[in-house]
Amino acid sequence: MPNSATAGGFLLVLAIVLPVCGVLLSLVLGGRHAERIALILMPAGLAIALAIAAAVWSTHNVLQYSVGNWSPPLGVAFRADGLSTAMMVTTAVLICGIGLFARGQFPSPQQSELRAPLVFWTLMPAVWGALNAVFIGGDLFNLYVALELLTFAAVPLVSLDGRAETLAAALRYLLFALFGSILYLLGAVLLYGAYGTLDIVLLSGHIQAEPIAWAAISLMTTGLLAKAALYPFHLWLPPAHAGAPAPASAILSGLVVKAPFFLVIRLWFDIMPRMPQPAAAQVLGILGAAAILVGSVVALRQVRLKLLIAYSTVAQIGYLFLMFPLAIKPEMGHPWNTTAWTGGVLQAISHAFAKAAMFMSAGLIAEALGHDRIAELSGIGRALPITVFAFALGGVSLMGLPPSGGFVAKAMLLTAAVAEGQWWWAVVVLVGGLLAGGYVFLVLARALADSNEPLTLFATVSRRRQAVVVAVALCAVLLGFVPLHPSEFLQIGRPGIAVGGIR
Amino acid sequence: MSDATLYGLCGAVLVGLGLFGLIVNPLPLRKILAFNLIGGGVFLLFGVVARRGAAAGLGGDPIPHALIITGIVVAFAATALAIALLLRLFRETGRATLGSDG
User: Fold this and answer.
1) Domain definitions of chain B by residue range
2) Most A-contacting residue of B85, B95, B97 (CB-CB within 10 A), to test interface
3) pTM for the complete prediction?
4) Chain B neighbours among A 233-272 (CB < 8 Å)?
5) A455 FRET partner, CA 20 to 30 A, in A44, A102, A284, A461?
């Protein structure tokens, strides 16, 4: 049953191999070819992601490919279920948007070779390939390698400008990531030692409720939390995400932190569905709630716009982990049926678009003004109305105002919290929404205020780049118009499908 | 005590020492070394797993060995990247620390 390759499985291989080939070609050809290669890869990768989505949608089944025709446990399987497909399409759309935006920021020079554009255009496909490998990997060790590839591609993006402070931020990010990945690897070794396989599907059949499984899962989860920057492992995130150039920040904040979160879902819902741990899930929820409160309050106190957005990422990552206490219950056979599960996943997707749009608009504002101090933003709303509009659209989704993806996600979490009788999570969601409203309003109030002296712009910002940012922000809003039960597609590949939506 | 247990305990000690160093030591270079120490411990544990999984007349389970080699390559790459960043930081600032909270 699950161990045979399905038709269309080669698409999964293409989704990884194509970006990797692009990276290798960029390394060989160098110079301005890197940008061209990335621009060719963007539509091709988007087409592949959509083709995978179409295949999964039409067959209503998992798309599977066994590398070298060796089936697990000896071989390595790629699997794309509804969840991984949704993440892949999100990644592809967002990378295309960020790529179009970055053309204005990292133009490749005609003759010579500049370091920053070359590195950006080479690493963007590298991040993309690594993300796809994380989303479709079916083997825990393979996922370790994919996570490491993602880290190695993401860390240099932080220090593209080569300033000392961004180098320090990149090094700190790398050290946290290495701490996380080595714990993950240790857990994977323990699981292999106990059950003799690393394949997710096989493992979910063998795993027992016993100490070694707990030890392994807790080690892996802790490692992944360090990579996902969940409170109290969030210290590395703000300097790294705020110090990177705008397109790189958008990739890091929108997509890269979602990969370890995705693996936590794999661990908790795919590997151990038969042994739910409500108590441990509560711990994840508490850390998430702490992240929401601490991240939002610290964001309110920031002086610089990009740091504010970075702390808001810390808070929004907290929302993702609220799904665990709400979806994992002792009496439930299939925790993924719940509204909370869909809400958590939808939050991951809508936050990706909203946060990317906010980082890119902050980048445009910083380009135009030459700084990003919030107190001195007045007048920018008149100078760059489209950019500020995009920032506001992203903010609407973060606050959870209708109609936006963030609204549907948070409404689902709220509904689940009330339905489960765990009202304290509902309070956290509401307070987090209010605080988000606070810091978004803080920026907008400054930006829309009239300035006393005429605003001098350092650089003109092209309309095309502003249009791209608005398009990305609109994606976050349009997610709110997805019918209120998008769960059906996300549930593909999970037994016991129950299409419910908001109950 | 069998050989496998001895190696397993050695691996556990290495992981523990490395974790302690990674968390407690403020200097990035020491943190990188501590990361390698944990890596060594994890690979040793994987070797023990291979030995314990021996079947069909083989001396050990071959899969962990393949994974160890991949793991070593990944850890090597990680170390190289970290050292490169640290060297660059040293060249820019003249110090090899991460500031107050390093």
Assistant:
1) 3-93
2) B85
3) 0.93
4) 235
5) A102
